[in-house]
Amino acid sequence: MAEIIPAILTKTYDDLKNKIALVRGVVPIVQIDICDGVYTQNYTWPFRSTGADRDILELDFHAQDILGEREGLPFWEDIEFELDLMVIDAVENFDFYMKFGPKRVVFHLEAQRDLESFRDFLEGMDMYIRETIQIGVAIKPSTPIENIFPIVPHVDFVQCMGIEKVGFQGQDFDERVLNNVEDLRKEFSEVVISVDGGVNSDTAQELIDAGADRLVMGSAIFNTSDIIGTVEMFKSLV
């Protein structure tokens, strides 16, 4: 049985809170997609604008309160959070993103300027962080899967993207991800593999058969009238 992770990609705190409320008590963890408008062509909460010259402090006021420890992410007492960092500065501003209190963090391989430096960063990460937060790395369908092999021993899981254009939901499934999952499973039999993007009722079983352990999906869950039933249906796949 694959773990089902609802993904939330939104520009507003209210929408974030509403979507979390819909799956509160249904799943133990949700993924919050954080896009900076630099690595991606889209920006999302907690940012209020896009552009390479944007000040990182230009944040939604709820985000400012979270960073100031005056409040937490919505329903943080009941649910864990996975931050999908589709941003250019995930390494440089890692401490900043950690202030949101995630259980898991996803870096994107293609957002890293130098893979050797990125590997050094992962190797040198504080032991307390490694004991309390699961670290993952995402890879696009078009990137040779071998590029991630040197990184795999230093992370807790790999997120294979099922779409090429990250930062947007509702895109067509890229079938190259099936080969990526299969190749990754053959090379690293024990690694936890997530798939994010293009996951729905037509593709979920194929991904599980290829070797996926976790399915991350936004539209397939939130665009249905029966969220609980939909999640349970995906959970039943083996």
Describe the structure.
It is a single chain. The protein is of the alpha/beta class. It has a single domain, classed as TIM Barrel (Alpha-Beta Barrel), CATH 3.20.20.70. 29% of the residues lie in helices and 19% in strands. The longest helix has 12 residues. The mean pLDDT is 93.
Brief overview:
With 238 residues, this protein is of the alpha/beta class.
Overall, the morphology is globular
How many strands? 8
Percent helix, as a range, is 25-40%
C-alpha end-to-end distance: 5 Å
Spatial sequence of strands, sheet with the most strands: 1-2-3-4-5-6-7-8
Residue ranges: pLDDT <50 for 5 or more in a row? none
Give the CATH H-level superfamily.
Answer: Aldolase class I
What is the makeup of the main sheet? 8 strands, parallel, barrel
Count the domains: 1
Number of separate helices = 9
Percent of sequence in beta strands: 15-25%
Structural class: alpha/beta
CATH class: Alpha Beta
The whole-number mean of residue pLDDT values reads 93
Following the backbone from N to C, one meets helices and strands in this order, namely EHEHEHEHHEEHEHEHH
What would the CATH topology be?
Answer: TIM Barrel
Key terms for this structure?
alpha/beta; 8 strands; TIM Barrel; 19% strand; eight-stranded parallel beta barrel; 238 residues; 9 helices
